[in-house]
Amino acid sequence: MNIIKKGAEADIYTTKWQNKRAILKIRKTKHYRNQNLDSNLRKLRTIKESQTISEVKSFGIPTPLVYFVNLEKTMIIMQQIPGKPIHDLSNPKIISLSKQMGKLVGLMHKNGIIHGDLTTSNFIYFQKKVYVIDFGLSHKTTKPEDQAVDLRLIKEILNSAHATIMKETWKNFLAGYKSIVGNSKYLQIKNLVSEIEGRGRYATVV
Question: Domain 84-198: what homologous superfamily?
């Protein structure tokens, strides 16, 4: 078992599950919280994440299989997708896959799921398919404002991590998103993204 990521909320390890490569996610104890409150929060978030991974799969979004959940240890063992994060692909490949990414986010939003951590590292390309991972910050809502915040994050990531291809990638992403949610919803969310940028809480992306 090897650690691959130490996060604020959880640590991620590579492991094995019935001789298959797997990912182990363990939510950390927060010692500054009341012990019972912390335990309940971690259990609830573990349940929610495992349920969301399975739920989004039901409406056509490729996600890892959940193999095992242990609530007492607040851990999830899930399938390891052996592909590459979109973040690590070539610029032409990122551009070509951005429309598919937009479609996947559109499907989530259309079905009332906010991912909450939309980065190019949380999309994995494997066997000509884009998978979505890490639903640790996901939640259910159909509020346009929350959907716009979801899109604002991926836009910010594209601008910071993929600046040279940001304009083309964002355009393709939005085209994919629009093809799923429809023109009226697309315009509403796009306008809200611009409104959020104009409030001064975020740096405006040019």
Answer: Transferase(Phosphotransferase) domain 1 (1.10.510.10)
As annotated, the residues of the chain forming the CATH 3.30.200.20 domain(s) are 2-79
- The CATH T-level fold of domain 2-79 is Phosphorylase Kinase; domain 1 (3.30.200)
List active site positions. Answer: 117
Mean pLDDT, consecutive 10-residue segments, the chain of 206 residues?
A: 86 95 94 88 94 95 97 96 96 98 98 96 96 95 96 96 97 98 97 88 48
Indicate the pTM of the whole model: 0.90
CB 63 within 8 A of CB 132: yes
Closest CA to 52 of 108, 14, 110, 130: 108
CA-CA distance, 11 to 136, in Å (whole number)? 11
